Request: fold
Amino acid sequence: QVQLVESGGGLVQPGGSLRLSCAASGSIFSFNAMGWYRQAPGKQRELVASITSSGSTNYADSVKGRFTISRDNAKNTVYLQMNSLKPEDTAVYSCNADLSVWLDSLRRTRMGYWGQGTQVTVSL
Reply:
């Protein structure tokens, strides 16, 4: 019953910026980590940024210095601020969450979830 909903994708010119949002809802006890993946045509899906419950972040080399991942714990939301966008950033961006969720009032378990993906296109 946990859902991830992504938003913020769209068409932007090279050098422009976008901010992606991923909101998790449902019976969530805590989050262990959340991350953003992307997949471009003809390429495998890759992890571009992640953040842990302690706030530690990790970035793919291709986006370091341009992308910033952050979270709002109160809203169970993770953001990806993308600046200085390049055409090679064009991809479907998907949110992934490693969560501890409630099965009922007494039991919880650790599960991984995916959002539906949002298209980011960087083009003139």
Observations:
- The CA atoms of residues 32 and 53 lie 5 Å apart.
- The chain has a mean pLDDT of 96.
- The radius of gyration is 15 Å.
